[in-house]
Write a structure and sequence with these properties.
This protein is an alpha/beta fold and 141 residues long. Helix content is 26%, strand content 16%. It is built from 4 helices and 5 strands; from the N terminus they run H-E-E-H-E-H-E-H-E. It has a 5-stranded mixed β-sheet with strand order 2-1-3-4-5, sandwiched between helices. The protein is globular and about 40 Å long.
Amino acid sequence: MRPSKDEVMLAVADKLSVRATCVKNKVGCVLTDFEGRILSTGYNGVPRHSPHCIEHPCVGATGARGSDTCQAVHAEINALLQCSDVNAIHTCYVTDMPCNSCMKALLNTGCMRIVTWKTLLDEEPAAAVFWRADGREIIRI
């Protein structure tokens, strides 16, 4: 059976997550337009010119997930920073559910769909309510 377009793009995001330099969580993101063409990609890691956590763990490396002490820039934000036209974004493929900050950043784009893995541990962020209230979709496969 042939994988769906969503499964293929999520697999691309999964491959990108291998490049992540955060020791706590490895996340990959692919932003596509309405036709399914890749606009930009990103993965999580510390800001440019900072030592990578995989070599020198930051203060947040041992903190609770979601704590503000982690220095990593999230995959979605890195992908948005690389995108030349955020209004052309239709779908965000990401290997972990976006946090509140990333969800709000995506709300300020043309993105209509977030596609992510379906896991038992994932909880939707509070911003998912705003996302759906604006007529946008969250798809978990």
